[in-house]
Each structure stands twice: as C-alpha cells, then as structure tokens.
Amino acid sequence: MGSSYLFHKTISNDYLGLVKTIKAKSLWELEVKERQTKEAWKKREQVARERGRILDLKAEAEFMNAEAVELINEYSNLIIHALEVNDKLDWDSQLKTDKYKEFVFKQNEPNLALIQQSLRVPKKSFFESIFSSLKKKREELEIKAETQYKEEKSKYDAEKDTAFMKYQTQKEKFDKEQEDHNNSVRTWKKDFENAVPEAIEKYIDVVLGNSEYPEDFNNEYEVQYEPNSKALIVSYVLPNTDQIPKISGHKYVASAKEIRPIEMKVKEFNSFYDNIIFQVCLRTIHEVFEAMYEPFIDLVIFNGWVKGVDKATGQDFTSCIISVQVSKDEFENINLEKVEPKACIKQLKGLIAGPLVDLAPVKPILDINKNDKRFIESKEVLAGINSIENLATMDWADFEHLVRELFEKMFTEDGAEVKVTQASRDGGVDAIAFDPDPIKGGKFVIQAKRYNNVVPVSAVRDLYGTVINEGASKGILVTTSHYGKDSRDFVKDKPITLIDGSNLVFMFQKYGYNVRIETK
Fold first, then answer.
1. How far apart, in whole angstroms, are the C-alpha atoms of residue 79 and residue 279?
2. CA gap 142, 130 in Å, rounded
3. How does pLDDT run across 71-112, given as a tens digit for each residue?
4. H or E, element range at 323
5. Which of 316, 75, 28, 106 lies closest to 213, judged by CA?
6. Phi then psi for 307, rounded to 5 degrees?
7. Could you give the number of structural domains in the chain?
8. Domain containing residue 40
9. Theoretical Cys-Cys bridge with 448: which of 184, 400, 460, 501, CB 3.0 to 4.6 Å?
10. What is the largest CA-CA distance in the chain?
11. pTM for the whole structure
C-alpha cells in the first residue's frame, strides 16, 4: 500500500548550489526534516567556505609574494632601468602647448516658435473672416509672444556677452601665463647653452627629478655647478635602512591558516642595502653625464647623505656615508650594463667607511659651497643690547641680526658657522647654520619673527617648506611673541623647533645679557 505525503516544501542553499523538495506526512515531520537538512547543509557549507578561504589565502599569498619579488627586483636593477631611458632633457616637453577650452554658453537661445507654442497662439484660419474675435485673440497672443521673445532674447544676449567677457579675461590670463612660462623656458634654454651656472643647475635638477625610482623612494637632492673646474656637486639624500624593503616574499602557512612575510636575513639585507646605495650613486652620475649635450661638465662629485635617529641617544643626525668623484672620460669607459656596483665604486676610489648599512660618516671629497649668494655681512647688534628697552619694538632687521648673533654664540661652541641672509621680510631664510659634526650636524634654517601677537601657523608652515627646499636638517623659528596650539600640533612630527619670547629671554640671560620683552 503506497504512502501519501500531505506536506512538502522546497528549500535551497545558494552557496552549495543545492535544491531539495522535502515531503512529509505531517507538518511536524516536515519541520524536522527541513531543520535536519539545513543543519547538514550548514556543515557542508562551512567546510566548503573554509576550503575556499584557504584557496583565497593561497592566491593572496601568491599575489603578495609576486609583488614583493617585483619590488626587490626594482631596487636590484636601478641601473638597468636607468639605461633604458634617454636622460637628455626634451626642451619642447617643458613648453606648455595646451589650448584654452572653446567658449560654450550653456543656456538655450530663446525661440519664438516655442514661445508661441507655450502660449498656444493659434494659426490663421478661415473662421477669422467670420468671427473677428478669433483674429483679435490671435493677434493679441502673437504680440504677447513677440514681446516675451524680445525680453528673453535681450536677457539671453546680455548674459551671453557677460559670460563671453569673463571667458575672454580667463583665456587672456591663461594665454599670458602660458606664454610667460614658455618664454622662461626659452630663456632658460638659451642661458643653459651659454653656460650660465644657474641654468645648468636647474637643468640637472630637472633631469634628476625626472628619474623614476620605486614608488616609496624619496628622490631628494641638491646640485651646485662650479664653472671654473666644470664640476658638478650632487648632494643626495639617500634612504636609510628603515626606508628600504626588507620583505623578500610571502607564504601561506597551512597549519596557522595565515599569510606570513619572509624577511631577509641580516647578511642578505646588508648586502642588498649596500648595493642599492652604490647603484643610486652610479645611476645619478650616469644621468648627469648622459643628459649634458653641451661640454660643460667634466667632473661629477656625488655625496650621499643619510638622515636618521641615533638609537643610542635618540638624537637626529645627518651623515655623509659615501663620496665619489669621477671625470667624464673615466666614466665613459665603464660599462654599466655589466658592472658590479660595489667593485665599480671601489675602482673609482669612492669614500666609504665600512658597510654602508652602518651609516658610518665620511668627509665629502668636495661639499656644496656654503657661501650662499644670499649671505651678507653680519651686523653687530648684541654689543649694544643693554640699551635696547624692548626686543618686541626694536627694528625688525636689527632683531634678525641679534638672533643670528645669539645662535652664532651657541653654534660656534661646537665649531659651527652661522650666516645671515638678505633682509626681505618675505618669510624666507633669515640665517643658516652649518654644523660639520657628522652625527648631529647638518644645515639649520633659522627664522626670526618680531611679533607682538600670536605667531600664525602659516609662518610655521612656511618655515617647514623652506627647510624642505633648502635640504636642511632642521628649522628653528624664534619670536618675541608666542605660538598657538595649532602651530605646536603642526611641528610634532617635523624637524622644527619653536622658541617663544620667554625662552628667547632665557637664552640671552644664559650668555649674560639682561633683556626684556613686552608685547603690546
């Protein structure tokens, strides 16, 4: 005798792709079977999802591993990549050739026919000869449509003329800026080909700026041209050991069901870091010589500097860890495609103090000349400081010289030198200190602000920009006033020191000068 099922229900699991119709003789039985089936499917789904997750992790590990290998290869082949590029500057590419956008007035021009249509102006008809009121109504509507059209057309023309005048003003500004830029490029090219030192420096600056390194590589440098010896000094800020990738790959660990990075062994990383620094040095020299299509550079001196933190003292330092000098003739005999970077640097008698990874300092063969053209003779103000009633009201130029003298006393204790720049009040450099100490030394930018009110955060930002542009180790902002919270927040993670009025008074008193500051 056959069984008859009174109840049935179709259930599915989208992840597993299963569909099943459950049949039962009672509603209770149907619910039990549904629950059991779904629980069984849930376990199967968990297993399937785990299997899929493992496959996903394996695929992700393979992708991350490929990325790490590719990045290591990029760093390992810095010279090879550079040899694939023509470093000579394309002057035409420096010109701006963009055309200003065409004038477009987005409003629709008024249309008499459309206005007539909106006002439902009737067309002439035979019935107007019978019913004069129809003709009168049509004519009235035509006059109304014509009046509305003229008003809208007049408004449209006026707005279009205004928009066109604005467009013309913007276009003229665009064209002038573009022409000014292009003229400056032409002047720059002419000056370069006439061996003007500043033009040559700018040329090399742009060439090195065009050099493509791995994404996280900070391409930072300063150049100076010596026309008498036809020598170019390149002061290059190299990455420290924390700025170079240490991960050589990734792997999936089945037992832990996770992806783990594969870090280079210490010896392997040390060799990798040294190789990168040697390559940057040779690559930079190659780019300079290849880019120079005029015979203005016979010698390149490369000084590689590293910024870091002394782990023993926690103090910031800037050290020159490699210095290489090479003539054009000597460098042309080097086959960079086959050269071993370390052996090449050794052959060129480059200066290094052991493994570069130790960041041990060396004295540059020839450093960038510190006799900046902006520097002027210092004015002696400190001797008469006791006659100054209030630093906050003294002449602003004298205040800058006074601060320079104060810092000169401080820095010269360690053999440093402080120079004051042209007075300009434009937010530029007021003084520069050069400290030759290979550990804590470097270039310091000092700005003096004789304020009576709180120093605006914009002044602090400007100093930070100046520090970057000058390639300085640190910036020092001195004021007779005080700084707000926004300024102090801004400098938290930056090489900037803020000295307010009270600290300035203390510094003077330290050297036996009794001064006072009374802000308005």
1. 6
2. 20
3. 899 999 999 998 998 999 999 988 889 999 999 998 999 998
4. strand 316-327
5. 75
6. -105, 135
7. 4
8. 7-70
9. 400
10. 125
11. 0.57
